[in-house]
Predict the structure.
Amino acid sequence: MSFNIVVLAKQVPDTHNVGKDAMKADGTVNRAALPAIFNPEDLNALEQALRIKDKFPGTTVSLLSMGPVRAAKILREGLYRGADKGYLLSGREFAGSDSLATSYALSCAIKKMGKVDMIICGRQAIDGDTAQTGPQVAEKMGFPQITYTEEILDVTKKAITVKRRVERGVEVLKGKLPIVITVNGTAAPCRPRNAKRLMKYKYAKTATERQTSGTDYIDEDHSYLILNEWGANDIDHDPKWLGLGGSPTKVKSIQSVVFTAKESKKITADDVEIEEMMKELIANHTIG
Amino acid sequence: MNNLIVYLEIEDGIVGDVSLELLTKGRSLADELKCKLEAVAIGYQLDKIGDQVFPYGVDTLYLADDKRLSPYTTLPHTSVLVNLFKETEPQIAFMGATSVGRDLGPRVSSALFSGLTADCTSLEIGSYEDKKAGKTIDNLLYQIRPAFGGNIVATIVNPECRPQMATVREGVMKKEILDPNYKGTVKKLDVSKYVSDEDFVIEVIERHMEKSKLNIKGSPIIVAGGYGMGSAENFKMLYDLANTLGGEVGASRAAVDAGFVEHERQIGQTGVTVRPKLYIACGISGQIQHIAGMQDSSMIIAINNDPNAPINAIADYVITGNVEEVVPKMIKYYKKNSK
């Protein structure tokens, strides 16, 4: 028994290090100005897929990402850790997509990839925190979904059993394949890079990357170095559902967050000062 | 037609606070839009739901009552909402930004091709100028949410598609009874017309839901720790301080991610929003996503080694020093001076 698993992954700006030049005038994100990383929960998703592959050799784990050409970096990262194939969906037609347009484009790409048993992705991406893409891909594919997954407990030819962690508890759900699974950050962390795989896939590139580096030719023995790169023309789609035009939500305005500073009392760890503060808090009935 | 509708989250026959908060907000927006406030309950044995929600000003309550609809699973609840929305064409639909609402909302929005904005922190009515089309649309829902790790606040609109959908976290909006005697109409839906057998492909095998034991949201005093606390061990002194003052312990996302405390205690954009009388921030630098969840506290004390920590800007008392040194002294001098 083996499965075809698609893992959805997003390259995200590291939102812990956001500078002033991170936003463009139209309100979209200037990704070029930020360090780009593999979305953390997508790594948890990859691990769940690789565990199925460990159990069922012959399973294929394909990574799919939509983004600019430089997002190929996370596909390589995925190959180093155990994924079999990388697919990049890239092109100006996809620019300005909200979660719904993104989900539509991804679903068109998945349909082109052939028979799929499971689509596994992170619960949400750290740049938007919306948690919408997984369920929306599921709806577009007509698959059921299980979100907030902490662990895949069992897989059979027809069904999958999953433990999910929600705010106030734990559920065990059993669903029919094909299905979409979204994975929480509380799931097992992704295994590290494998040194042999790192050597093998170091030069895996997309078509655009090969052109840029002048290594356009790949002989048959090295076809594993091809990262599939698809544009809008490569997938069967209706252009009106792509990109900004296919996005029902529009950004009206963006504001940087500024908090109104208060007049603070500045004190130190000195005993007298702490005691004085505690007396004040008791006197004005804040405590006690 | 074109009303505002709230999806009610129900556990053990009780409507969740997050839904009642959304009804409160929904009532005031419906008044502004001069439309009705509606609510939809999907589950089993829903006879008592009306008593719980009508006081919040609900004009119409739809009930989809069927044994198969409880506990929640994605597809049947999606089908009820999608079909009901096609029928009644609401202009706005709200859900809690909970593990239910965030599972259901995107599925419904995708099926209806209507825009959904997650985790809104503010909802307003306003107009939008579509420059390309050269027209202005009035009475749109402004869905205001932090993005990008909380570093910016974005106002999102859905100019064309309906319903305009938004999710909001528990505790962000206020819950307020409009009129204890307010009476709306109950409309029972014929469930078999809304769901199909294919919707029941997910089976719930086990389910352990706990009533939240913590009540951080309702605590008048919160002692919160950040990554700067360094370890779960060091959090113990925060529990000591909280116990002494009669408060609860909270934490920043970084402290939760580091495993110092459980997720339930997380305060901020991706945790709970709190408005206590006193907030004591210990070893918290003040990422915007944290500040967004506690800035409305009446009084804020910030204890930090770093005199330039962002949180100091909004604090009433800024204590520059080691938490390990300051917290025991606070306990000591509280005990000495109280009574």
